[in-house]
Design a protein that fits this description.
225 residues; alpha/beta; 7 helices; 7 strands
Length: 225
């Protein structure tokens, strides 16, 4: 009688263990929450943007609530920035960007990709005219001109979406004719930063930060943006 009762308990325990094992989800997909941080210092390149995108995709997989990108970049390849911005905006996660130092050219588009945007004291934004093609052959001039129009339209759309009032584009669109530098006060006034920098202290961080440092900052070449 006792042996039968013990056998019954063991059987029930095995069934319960099996059911629990089947119901369990992989650790990587358990929701944990918090902010994953990427520190981006250097030029905008295919390699650096791929690293940032991968960090965002990893953040989704491990269950972070938010990806925060701290930016210090003079800019670089506009096609690489377009790739990163479009991928980041497709992810089911909140994107936050922080201008931590100088943010220039195509790196401004990355900054504007943030739903929440912050500017650190002493930081600046640098805008300049699109200069992607130094030379044009007759047979490719029309196609390259069309590409210029597409890129310029995309970049202007990013800037407009970054403003508190889109009519402020009248103030900054002079970047098409001359270089324009906005300091942290300008960035806040225009609404390009829409959150107080001090509120970053309130975030709950998730895991270790990812550092993307592809190389030393350098002067942007005429074929870059």
């Amino acid at each position: 009688m006792i042996r039968s009762f013990v056998a019954l308990l063991l059987c029930v325990g095995l069934v319960a263990t099996h059911a629990t094992a089947q119901d369990a989800k992989p650790t990587a997909y358990l929701k944990k929450g918090g902010t994953m941080v990427v520190n981006f210092l250097g030029p905008v390149t295919s390699a650096s943007m791929a690293e940032i995108v991968r960090a965002g995709q990893d953040a989704v997989l491990v269950g972070a609530d938010e990806l925060q990108i701290n930016i210090s970049s003079g800019g670089g390849r506009v096609y690489a920035a377009r790739f990163a911005v479009n991928v980041l905006r497709s992810l089911p996660i909140r994107i936050t960007t922080v201008a931590m130092s100088d943010v220039g050219s195509s790196a401004v588009a990355l900054f504007c990709a943030g739903e929440e945007r912050y500017v650190a004291p002493g930081s600046s934004i640098f805008l300049h005219q699109l200069t992607r093609f130094a030379e044009r052959s007759v047979k490719t001039a029309a196609a390259q001109e069309r590409e210029d129009q597409i890129v310029r339209g995309w970049y202007d759309t990013m800037l407009a979406s970054c403003l508190g009032d889109r009519s402020s584009m009248d103030e900054i669109e002079v970047y098409n004719d001359r270089d324009l530098i906005l300091d942290d006060a300008d960035i806040l006034r225009l609404g390009m930063a829409n959150k107080a920098y001090s509120s970053l202290r309130e975030k709950r961080f998730f895991g270790r930060a990812v550092n993307v440092v592809p190389g030393a900052l350098k002067r942007i070449a005429p074929s870059d943006h």
